[in-house]
Each structure stands twice: as C-alpha cells, then as structure tokens.
Amino acid sequence: MGENITLLEQIKQSFDCKEQDIRSYSPLTLAYIGDGIYDLIIRSVVVERGNCSANSLHKKTTRYVSAVAQSGMIQALFDELTEEEQAVYLRGRNAKSYSAAKNASRGEYRRATGFEALIGYLYLQNQTERLLYLVKKGIELVGMEL
C-alpha cells in the first residue's frame, strides 16, 4: 500500500468494512474505540521515548490513561473544543455506563468516558491532526510531561 492513507482507511479496506454513519453510534461505542486509540497514542509515545522493560513502559503509560488524568485533561481542554466536539463529549459524559471506576470518583469516570467518546469520534471522522493536537494540549494543560 504505497498510498498515503490513514490507518483507519487501511483497516476498512483490509477487512472489507462497510461505511457507517458514526453519528448513529452510541456514545459508549465511541468511548470504546476512543479508549483504545488514546491508549495506542500514549503507548506509541512512551515506546518511542525509550526502549525499556515492559513493566516500566506499563507504569509510564498508566499515569496518562487513568480516568483521573483523562478527566483533568478534558476539563482543561473544554473551552478549546468546537461546539460539535463539546456535544460529543457531553453525550459521552452523560451516557449511562454500567461499569464502575476502579480508582476514580464517579464524576471523574464520567468525564473520562466523555473524553474517550470525543477521541473515538475524532478518530472515526479521520480528524487525526485535531485528535493528536487535543491529546498533546491536554497533557500540557494539566502539567504532565510525556
């Protein structure tokens, strides 16, 4: 595949996925894919910053992928979001989730779910540049160094 296409487009082509209207996706579906994409971004950066043991990589990664960290990031980023992005986040935050947070308050967990829904939405919209900008800016705004 010498073309310059996104990972998502390559996945859709390779697995013969049909086009979907992502506006019809539930916020928890968006959060599900967003959780994986956010985790992939953080893991990619951590690995690129240095080759070390898997345990060390895991410890570095968990600092950024916690509900507490994600909650802080979305609170810091909220005013930078477009109206459409705010609406996606709020749908995710307000969704009725049947799982509970392990190391976060209910509010932090709900905000993190909204954050993940936004990440998933941007990924599925192929807005990779905006997605990466918001993740990087969120990390900076909460004072974490990656």
Characterise this structure.
This protein has 146 residues and is mainly alpha-helical. It has a single domain, classed as Ribonuclease III domain (Ribonuclease iii, N-terminal Endonuclease Domain, Chain A), CATH 1.10.1520.10. The chain has helices at residues 7-14, 27-48, 54-65, 67-77, 83-94, 106-124, 128-141.
Helix fraction, binned, reads 55-70%
Low-confidence stretches: none
Taken as a percent bin, the fraction of beta residues is under 5%
Alpha carbon gap, first and last residue: 31 Å
H/E element string? HHHHHHH
What about the largest sheet? none
Provide the number of structural domains. Answer: 1
Shape: globular
User: What's the alpha carbon Rg, rounded to whole Å?
Assistant: 15 Å
If classified by CATH, what would the architecture be?
Orthogonal Bundle
CATH level-four homologous superfamily name: Ribonuclease III domain
CATH third-tier fold name: Ribonuclease iii, N-terminal Endonuclease Domain, Chain A
Multimerization state = single chain
Helix/strand structural class: mainly alpha
Keywords:
Ribonuclease iii, N-terminal Endonuclease Domain, Chain A; 7 helices; 146 residues; 0% strand; mainly alpha
Give a brief description.
This protein is mostly helical and 146 residues long.
